Amino acid sequence: MAGKEISLMILFFFLPIFSCFFSSASLAAAASSSSSHTLNPGETINSSSSTFLVSANKLFTLGFFKTNLFLSEEYSNNSYLGIWYSNYSYPPAWIGNRDKPITDNSGVLTIDSTGKLIIRHNSGVPIEIYGGQTSTTTNITATLLDSGNFLVTEEVNNNNGSTNQRVLWESFDYPTDTLLPGMKLGVNHRTGRNWSLTSWLSQDIPSPGAFTMDWDPNTRRLTIRRRGMIYWTSGALLDNTDFEFLKTNLVQGNYNLTNVTTKDEEYFSYSLIKVPYLFDLIKSRNFISGWLLDYQGLMYDGDRGLMAQVSLCYGYNTDNGCELWKQPQCRGHHSQTFDLRTGYFNDSSDKASFYDKNTSLGSSDCREICWDDCDCVGYKDYIGETGCMFWRNQEFHQDLSGSASPKHYVLISNTEYVGGKKKIKWIPIVVAIPIFVMLVFGLLCYLKRRTIRLQVGRGETTEMNDLIELMTLANAQTGTNKLENETNKSNDLKIFSFGSISAATNSFSLENKLGEGGFGPVYKGRLTNGREIAVKRLSRTSGQGVVEFKNELILIAKLQHVNLVRLLGCCIQGDEKMLIYEYMVNKSLDSFLFDPSQKEKLTWEKRFIIIEGIAQGLLYLHQYSRLKIIHRDLKASNILLDNNMNPKISDFGMARIFKQNVLEVTTARIVGTYGYMAPEYAMEGIFSVKSGVFSFGVLMFEIVSGRKNNSFYHADGPLNLVGYAWDLWNKNAALELVDPMLSSDSSIRQQLMRCIHVGLLCVEDRAVNRPTMSDVISMLIDDNITLPMPKKPAFVSGISVGEENSNKSKLGKYSVNGLSSSTMDAAR
């Protein structure tokens, strides 16, 4: 069996074991429904009496546990203070005494008379969790949050007579082997603290092991080291949505990745995007997650699957994120690996084998020692324990009978011995044949293309012909007959040369880079006439091709409205394809709305102007443009703001064109962003102008509240911002939705209430009940219009939405200039 298959078997074998491992602790916590989430001075959490702290919503449990599945007597009685998910089969997310186990059942967690959080036990000096740095002790408490963070806080009296809690210590500052949502990997420059993960030593020994994972802010990548040597990297973080070599974009994944860099700290973190799952079995993924770095170098998140497999890195291969390091001369042919096999070596004498009893050796250490020993042909580690058995210069006899023979890690190569007979691997030969055929075919294609290009006259390249055809089509369909390049004087779309765009963007320098979207990178530029532009450069790895590029250009060329982003022209040269837009100095709405340091600039007057402008832009798309257009990805990051904070809808990569007499269209290719999709579109692929109205309603709630629609991560309660607004409406407390940054002036309350009311009408479950954008604008600006009572919206309590054929959009912290793009389909 291949090493990769073995590793996957180990992963999914141990998940149910972890479930059994925690069953007693979890059941005890669940049974103790009266368990508190706060430890006060004088109170205790006891190992002997099985007492626990349980977070407010019973998501996490803190208490003592043992890892006694496969351990020898030396380790079987060790107990540890840990935090774990209360009712889910995850290993502990945090351990307070991983390198100082308690050797009996005497552990007691308490806050002592000096304000220290300690573990008392019968085996020696108390284990200090928090050392106490305050003169007062009576107001200190320790609380377990639903995030899994364990806080030590102090109640502080303010001058005005009020009190607040000051955080003295938190477990998130001391990660073990698991990264929970909201935890940080990186460095705090102010305190000098590094946040990193360290694996267990073995399957059942939580002591710090061989592997560590940290965040490199300079290269924007995660790095896994083994004993200080870099074994694997994730590749760079791509647009805060994915890594090159880390499998976070699995169908089962719902991650929102974040990279933060300030003068005080640089770190990576992630949160969970709430997705309406179809099956109850996986609904827990909306609030249950933990990236685990295990003792073998595997990285996974529960039942979501394997994310990285560092155990496949040998120092000579660079696939899937593996790094290179110096190799022993005997391993120089780069074809050897270790494989777990059942059988025996033909000589088990002391001369042929030896046992290293070093208690600091884990499984990966055994492999490394054998790899560096040119005579070593195999090794064995011991489940749940430490130490290694090695074999030298011996032939291995594999047992294929299925009997209970012992298992060993055996060094194998492309030619290997199985049962004493030489077995030749045909994989390299099979792979080489199609590669050779592809090379020959590629050479023929190149020669043919080169011949065609040589036939094109001087100054009339294939790229220019394509561009002229494209621009002629675009201008003709917008009612103009003039084709313009940089020297023309018309105001139609322009053809920009590659040289002029390269000069405008300083050769596409990093200093000019604004960000990166699905289309590719976006750059700021300045033309020779001083005009500032935004350049969307199609990435060579983008899913967009020439046809999609043409479709998007033609579509945007048709649109002329003050609340839609303006396209200036394009550039095509060889593989280079670029769209040139007017530059928006204030970038996108989300960079103000969701940034605490910027949102105060959005007064209610400005927010209402933005709401009305977006509505006017949508009305134009739905009713007054020459073609009926459904945007399909309306959200805050796709709303640009000019220097006067006027909104402009951007990013028409997912838009669909309707004929005027078509009311709705059904598609099997669902694209867009979860949380903004109308229910009929998300579940059945049906979209219409009413789908756009639904997205507008969600966006209006975000503008009123200053919160993201997917900012609700609790196990119970509203699924999203829409559900929260509906709950408040039914409690006659709708104004509690309003952003606290806004003035509480009574003069704007009526307008705020009207926006919330109209927003609820826009997000009603049935499309037929939603107003048109024309009705929406009338209801927003005319106070004399009586509004109907809203009905229950969609997606307020976990209504199931099918995942199949859907394309999850993972949101970064903010968009830059809002110029991301993806394929645009035209409905026929």
TrEMBL record:
GO terms for cellular component: plasma membrane. InterPro entries: Bulb-type_lectin_dom, Bulb-type_lectin_dom_sf, Kinase-like_dom_sf, Prot_kinase_dom, Ser-Thr/Tyr_kinase_cat_dom, Ser/Thr_kinase_AS, SRK-like_kinase. GO terms for molecular function: ATP binding; carbohydrate binding; protein serine kinase activity; protein serine/threonine kinase activity. It catalyses: L-threonyl-[protein] + ATP = O-phospho-L-threonyl-[protein] + ADP + H(+); L-seryl-[protein] + ATP = O-phospho-L-seryl-[protein] + ADP + H(+). SUPFAM superfamilies: alpha-D-mannose-specific plant lectins, Protein kinase-like (PK-like). It is found in: Cell membrane. The chain crosses the membrane at residues 426-447. The keyword ATP-binding applies. Its EC number is 2.7.11.1. Residues 30-165 form the Bulb-type lectin domain. Keywords: ATP-binding, Cell membrane, Disulfide bond, Glycoprotein, Kinase, Lectin, Membrane, Nucleotide-binding, Receptor, Serine/threonine-protein kinase, Signal, Transferase, Transmembrane, Transmembrane helix. CDD domains: B_lectin, STKc_IRAK. Residues 1-30 form the signal peptide. Residues 508-760 form the Protein kinase domain. PROSITE patterns: BULB_LECTIN, PROTEIN_KINASE_DOM, PROTEIN_KINASE_ST. Pfam families: B_lectin, PK_Tyr_Ser-Thr. It is a single-pass type I membrane protein. Belongs to the protein kinase superfamily. Ser/Thr protein kinase family. This is Receptor-like serine/threonine-protein kinase.
